[in-house]
Amino acid sequence: MWIDTHCHLDAAEFDADRDAMVARARAAGVTQIVIPAVDVHNLARVRELAHEHGFTYALGIHPLYVMNAKPGDLDRVAEALEQHKDDERLVAVGEIGLDFFVPGLDPDIQQHFYVEQLKLAKRAGLPVLLHVRRSADKLLAGLRRVGFAHGGIAHAFNGSEQQARAFIDLGFKLGFGGTLTFERSLQIRRLAATVPETALVMETDAPDIPPHWLYKTAEQRGAEPGQARNEPSELPRIAESLAQLRGWTAEHTASVTSANARAALPKL
């Protein structure tokens, strides 16, 4: 059975057929999904969906949303973490992190929200779901600065082997998804093939990061909106790429990555 460690189940792209999509995921063998929040406006929604469908969730503010965050939003995250601290379905703080790829995002504001949310996670005793995009070294520096020892998942990891090792040494697992299916994703595929097997977890980031068989060019997406949507039922087929790279069976891949997910997020 499979665990999708990162899926934005609350996304508007799923509004028309969310229940059917969940049914497809279960039919494909995806038994657990982690639903991360992205800002204070969906803290309640991800929790509701986790309870409605028997999944799990994380609470936090995504780096792409911090520019519109208000001064009291960190307090709202802290209040939600305290209010739901005994909720068995609350498994992490996230999605938090740093994004130095998207233009126009103030790095100082991002850094402030990242470090403060690390402190909230440390106080709550929860692991974190980290957004890593051209920011691995700064994220690692923040973890060391805060003295964060609860680990978590470096989501959609695309750093160097040295950075991968640094995250692993700090107790993190590395999330792999749709980009594994592209033969030109040389660095990601190399990492997936060579990092210790105890470091690997699977994710879709649905509705984003579609695998190659769903990918559309910008022109195609404009002409056919919604046609490049990823969803959790794709996870077993995505994982075939990992199995091929490692020389594993599908059953072994599911067993290893699910065990790693439970190690990264103990409340799973």
TrEMBL record:
Enzyme class: hydrolase
EC number: 3.1.-.-
InterPro entries: DNase_TatD-rel_CS (IPR018228), Metal_Hydrolase (IPR032466), TatD-like (IPR001130)
Keywords: Hydrolase
CDD domains: TatD_DNAse
GO MF annotations in UniProt: hydrolase activity
First and last residue of the signal peptide: none
Sequence similarity: Belongs to the metallo-dependent hydrolases superfamily. TatD-type hydrolase family.
Protein name: TatD family hydrolase
Species this chain originates from: Pelomonas candidula
